[in-house]
Design brief:
Elements (H helix, E strand, L loop, with lengths): L3 H18 L5 H17 L6 H27 L18
Helix pairs in contact: 1-2, 1-3
Family: Belongs to the complex I LYR family.
Protein name: Complex 1 LYR protein domain-containing protein
InterPro entries: Complex1_LYR_dom (IPR008011), Complex1_LYR_LYRM4 (IPR045297), ISC_assembly_LYR (IPR051522)
């Protein structure tokens, strides 16, 4: 099992990937980024080699910077139109 500091770092990276993945204005990019992040983290969840974990964390940090940059660029060029598959959240009746 990973050390607590590494576990915290990995969980923080995971949350950041989901957070910035959800900032894409395009439904397709947003869905892909979130799905790809979940799949990648789940695929490597059982890794026990500290060297491999450190390498993957380093790679993930670099990739997170790319996702952040692309999400920002995505917000600059929004069309404001929603796709049919995008649902709007309706308020619950009290």
């Amino acid at each position: 099992m990973a050390t607590p500091a590494t576990r915290t770092q990995v969980l923080s990276l995971y949350r950041n990937f989901l957070r910035y993945g959800n900032k894409f204005s395009s439904y397709n990019f947003r869905d892909y980024a979130v799905r790809r992040s979940r799949d990648a983290f789940r695929a490597n969840a059982n890794e026990a080699d500290p060297e491999k974990i450190a390498t993957m964390i380093s790679k993930a940090e670099k990739e997170l910077e790319v996702v952040k940059r692309q999400a920002l660029i995505s917000t600059l060029y929004t069309t404001g139109e929603k796709l049919v598959v995008e649902t709007t959240v309706k308020p619950r009746a009290a």
